[in-house]
Design a protein that fits this description.
- This protein folds into three domains: 111 residues, FAD/NAD(P)-binding domain (3-Layer(bba) Sandwich), CATH 3.50.50.60; 98 residues, 2-Layer Sandwich (D-Amino Acid Oxidase, Chain A, domain 2), CATH 3.30.9; 97 residues, Trna Endonuclease, Chain: A, domain 1 (3-Layer(aba) Sandwich), CATH 3.40.1350.
- 26% of the residues lie in helices and 28% in strands.
- A seven-stranded mixed beta sheet has the order 5-6-4-15-16-17-14, with helices on both faces. Strands 8-2-1-12 form a four-stranded parallel beta sheet. Strands 19-20-21-22 form a four-stranded mixed beta sheet, covered by helices on one side.
- α1 packs parallel to α5.
- Bound molecules: flavin-adenine dinucleotide.
Length: 394
Amino acid sequence: MARPLDPFTGDAALPARTRVVVIGGGIIGVATALELAERGVPTVLCEKGVIGGEQSSRNWGWCRQQNRDARELPLATKALDLWEQFGAESGENTGFRRCGLFYVSNNDEELATWARWGEFARSVGVKTRMLTGDEATERGGFTGQRWKGGVHSQADGIANPGLAAPAVAKALIALGGTVLQGCAARGIETTGGAVSAVVTEMGTIRTRLVIQAGGAWASSFCRQLGVSFPQATVRQTILAVSTGALTLPDAFVSKSISITYRGEGCHTLAISGRAKVDPTLQFLRYALDFLPMFARRWRNPKLRGDIDLIAWHGTTLCIVEVKTRTRRDLVPAEMAVDSDKQDTLRQLARSYLRRLPAAAREATIRFDVVSIYLESPNAKPSHIELNQGAFGWA
Ligand SMILES: Cc1cc2nc3c(=O)[nH]c(=O)nc-3n(C[C@H](O)[C@H](O)[C@H](O)COP(=O)(O)OP(=O)(O)OC[C@H]3O[C@@H](n4cnc5c(N)ncnc54)[C@H](O)[C@@H]3O)c2cc1C
């Protein structure tokens, strides 16, 4: 079984002063500190545990452009280049490889969405290819299932989450940065309203600039400074599995599972699209900011399909289907909600209503379709249409 996290030895002495303090040694903190060190900015990184010891060593490891929103795609493309460049320039091993990501599905609508995304992606130079049913079934042979189709995003890749953050931290030290482990930042001192120091478990560092990269802890740290940083923490489980004689793809996802090669004969196995929210005080504090997001893509595992958005319009409960197009066809986007899709949404709506308190079940229900057209070169929505009451119960 591959080691879950590469051990890393940091610095022992706390500098009295520096230009920038980065709080948090996950992938965001180490990458930010590395960028500063490359620009010759004296930087100290404080990590309360070990480098990469939290979320950054527990993810799928996908470095992905596939299915990205048009607005984040340029950033994802740049990130892939940076992963490649980092390995070549630093000599450190993050396990990054452009092995391609492999998706399969039996859902016609999902396959059609991927095909449309592929058209858009190719128009901006991103390589991705739809797979026929035979190709998807052959490549996904280990599932023992027949697949209607799939997609292979050739230029995407994976890195090893157990290696990545420690590798970047090593490169940071080589450039003269300071990395302190077991050194929680407790608070920030100000003088005349400006940051003047960071108070840590190991002592105080004088600085004028602090970058908070504390992952799931960022919100509570900011709150003690009077800074509101809405954050919702979700919990998901992934497993490291040894695959024995079974030959598995490097990176595979279906509606129910994802599998990613992690190195040394070991894969990461995760249940796709399932995350749990713990109703903690922290969650409740910002619940109103995030509830609309959690109500998106509502599913009942026993039924097919999902509801894109559930929202209240006054006392009317709206079941909203969102359709996106990269160009305006003769057939408008909302026409994609055919009678089959309407039946699916009605079934899901009934199931959703059964879970509501009795009083809410009496609400008027409206089925809306939002059509979004992304026609401009920067893929910003050029036109949005809301068709209220696009169809009814019958
Ligand atoms: C199931 C799952 C799968 C994912 N898959 C992918 C994927 O395939 N590809 C992808 O790119 N992303 C993926 N992600 C997202 C990715 O894991 C996160 O975006 C990323 O790890 C966040 O990094 P981070 O540095 O912000 O946080 P973290 O890794 O959590 O690092 C924050 C660090 O800050 C430290 N810290 C906090 N408070 C303090 C303090 N006061 N003083 C000192 N240190 C402190 C913590 O100890 C921690 O080490 C996935 C996420 C999940 C949940």
